[in-house]
């Protein structure tokens, strides 16, 4: 059986759809005509809008006394001494991660191994599954 076409399609009115489309186009043309009048202030820069409200002031640089001036940067080597490493760097890139942690003094886990999981919060509180 063939599909119904034209006015035979139930609930489909081509004239009403065309009228709605014409109405949308008309509203869009009217909005485009009114846009510059209503929203032109948004296309100007903020500085141009307020330049007359705030007078431009000339700033005079302040000369600080010698004891308040920022001192030149001192090289870091003057304060920090970096000694050579205890062990040589490993040859492989896979061994680079944690290569110092094998020494007891340089151990990363100072407070013991990582805690073992004790289950979820719901299991610890003995809540039913519906409480989630």
From TrEMBL:
- Top-level taxon of the source organism: Eukaryota
Pfam families noted in UniProt? LLC1 (PF14945)
Cite the InterPro entries for this sequence.
C20orf85-like (IPR020339)
What name does UniProt use for this protein? Uncharacterized protein
């Amino acid at each position: 059986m063939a599909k119904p076409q034209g006015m035979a399609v139930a609930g489909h009115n081509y004239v009403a759809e065309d009228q709605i489309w014409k109405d949308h186009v008309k509203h869009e043309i009217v909005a485009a005509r009114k846009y510059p009048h209503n929203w032109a202030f948004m296309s100007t820069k903020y500085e141009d809008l307020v330049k007359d409200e705030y007078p431009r002031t000339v700033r005079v640089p302040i000369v600080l006394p010698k004891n308040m001036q920022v001192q030149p940067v001192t090289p870091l080597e003057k304060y920090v001494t970096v000694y050579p490493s205890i062990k040589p760097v490993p040859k492989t890139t896979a061994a680079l991660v944690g290569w110092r942690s094998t020494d007891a003094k340089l151990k990363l886990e100072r407070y013991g191994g990582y805690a073992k999981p004790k289950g979820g919060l719901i299991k610890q509180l003995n809540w039913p599954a519906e409480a989630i």
